Amino acid sequence: IIYNRVAKCGSRSMILLISELAVANGFKFINHPKTQHFLTAKQQLAFVDMVEQQSQSFIFTRHMYFIDFQRFGSVTPIYINLIRDPLSRLVSQYYFRRFGDGRNRTWDFKGSEAGRHRSFDECVITNRTECMDPNALFYVIPFFCGQSRKCRVSSKWAFRQALYNLVNRYLVVGILEEVDDFLTVLEKLLPNFFKGALEMWKMPETRRKGRRQDETRTKNKKAPSAEVVRIMKKRLHLEYEFYEAVKERFHRLKKEHGLADSAERIRFADTRITS
Questions:
Q1: Quick check: keyword Ribosomal protein in the entry (predicted)?
Q2: What's this model's pTM, rounded to 2 decimal places?
């Protein structure tokens, strides 16, 4: 199983959960610590070979874009992923770069102190590059589009390629706003790996350790104004089109497995995690 995780979509909380499931269910878990979205053809082939040589059931995760195993004459492994509302993800990433999280981590902000404390609203209203450059805002789709250079540029082609891979290469792509149902679907489809996932996720003793909330919650995050939401939904229109396609497909999958898509079942993950 390949989980090519997307930043600020609950991935660190999921990693902690999968590491516990690996012990409970007896599979190998490979968590690659280095972020590398694009791999050369040689690196992709080496990755395909590594996957093929594994003798034990395993889950591999890394921040990287989709790799097409069929291009190298290999069978596509099971791909899974988890994404979230595009603006919610962007706001979380914006503040995480500046202030880190409960682990006192900061990411890669190298601007001035004034820039560090600039609100997301101000960034948008004053048209800072960080909040308006189409390619900077084109973030989630490339994870599904793949390793082609054309996937790096905001375009309808990249959007369509991401949709194709979503439908034809991914077993499950969930949404963070319905993370409980995502885990339930994984339990049904991949029981050898995810048996007990939802129960483990909800264990009070696990939450007391701060794994879901205190350690991975972005610091100093401020909700955007209604005007900024309106502006950014236009700027993120392709990302929202893809998000809605993922949500629609996920809801169909839930229905196929007897999970009603009702307000009572929806669990908004921000109450527990905002990684």
A1: no
A2: 0.88
The alpha helices in 129-236, defined as continuous H runs, are 134-137, 141-145, 156-169, 179-189, 191-194, 197-202, 204-208, 226-235
Give the per-residue pLDDT at 255.
Answer: 95
Quick one: DSSP state of residue 209? T
Helix (H) or strand (E) holding 163: helix 156-169
156: buried, middle or exposed (CB in 10 Å: 19+, 13-18, 0-12)? exposed
In the numeric block, which tokens belong to residue 266?
Answer: 């929806």
pLDDT score recorded for residue 220: 67
Cα 66 vs. chain centroid, distance in angstroms?
12
Sign of CA dihedral 189, 176, 27, 170: positive
Which amino acid is it at 4?
N
Residue 173: helix, strand or coil by DSSP? strand
Query: What CATH fold (topology level) applies to the domain 2-273?
Result: Rossmann fold (3.40.50)
**Is the C-alpha dihedral spanning 272, 136, 242, 187 positive or negative?**
negative
List residues bridging with 170 in a β-sheet.
79
pLDDT score, position 108: 67
Burial class (CB in 10 A: 0-12, 13-18, 19+), 82: buried
* CB-CB contact of 36 with 64 (8 Å): yes
What is the reported pLDDT for 99? 86
Q: Which two tokens stand for residue 92?
A: 């979380």
Q: Establish whether 37 is a catalytic residue.
A: no
Which residue among 63, 117, 237, 257 is the active-site one?
Answer: 63
Please tell me the predicted confidence (pLDDT) of residue 160: 99
Number of Cβ within a 10 Å radius of residue 270: 18
113-to-3, 108, 219 alpha-carbon distances in Å? 36, 13, 16
- The values of phi and psi at residue 79, to 5°, are -105, 135
Place of tokens 């492994």: 77
